[in-house]
Amino acid sequence: MKKKWILGGVAALIIIVGACAAPYFFIGAPGQGVVKVRKGSTIDMIADSIRAHVDETFAGRVATMMKLMGAKVENREGAFRITAGMSPFTAARRIKNGVQDGIRFTFNNVRTLDEWTDRWGENFMQGPDAMRKALKDSAFCARYGKTPQTIACLLMPDTYEFYWNISPEKMLDRMNDYYNDFWTSERKAKAQRLGLTPDQVATVASIVEEETSKPDERGKVARLYINRYEQGMRLQADPTVKFALGDFSIKRITVPMTQVNSPYNTYRVEGLPPGPIRLPEKSTIDAVLDAPQHDYIYMCARADFSGYHDFTRDYASHLDNAHRYQAALNARGIK
Description:
Layout: H1 2-26, E1 33-37, H2 43-53, H3 56-69, E2 78-82, H4 88-97, E3 102-106, H5 113-123, H6 127-135, H7 138-142, E4 159-163, H8 168-182, H9 185-193, H10 198-211, H11 218-231, H12 238-245, H13 282-289, E5 298-301, E6 309-312, H14 315-331
Antiparallel strand pairs: 1-2, 3-4, 5-6
């Protein structure tokens, strides 16, 4: 009888202790954050990261829970998202088991490959230098049928999700898959009808995107450059000069600027530059592929600064448009 009484007391004590401890271990996180764990981290180091991104009390509870679980975290690596209301038990278990969360990576309005690389480095563990090295490696780029000048074609602006500790190689493998998904047989057929490869289409799209901020004008601008290309004319695209000079802030292209010695300067070289001058949007690539037919070969920004252009077939009319635009620049003191 005494033994039963003792067992009953122990059971009651366990229940009481459990009831008291339950809120401690299962009360939800007061906020949210992403905890990034590198190999070699200790439980206390992970707790410091949770403390910085979520809450001190919650961090202590997660650390205690991991220690009770006997979690081995020295080889753990990844980004773990803590959401508001998540229990210390759930957070500890996810980190212990290495159930990491993806990092959403959005890149739009990115001009150069260097800008993209820096943005990648801000979001992922290995940093920009590792990615930059991969993108400049000719042999590595050749894995995807690219060169260091055309590898940017793989990087199609959109929103993606990757693990924080993804390597540059794995990232580019994934981007190559997305690239191949985009370039359907229908799009490839359209490019072929234009006499262009998919990467050449992307190169034209990059110039078009720099020429006009007006989506409804991009197809028209694209056809103008295609017309020039087909006729063997130099493209004479101002954005390629800015790219060659490394300065997209230039407002007015002067004759000396057009003399810069660069394979990207389409005032001096014939045909297309060796690769895109920015990362073009998918919609701009489609605008090139679906460019409406016309026979314009000259264009000039409108003097009303609306962002649109005047298009002409003959050089004399083009000069008239150019003079009006130059006068408008002068009137505004734009040099």
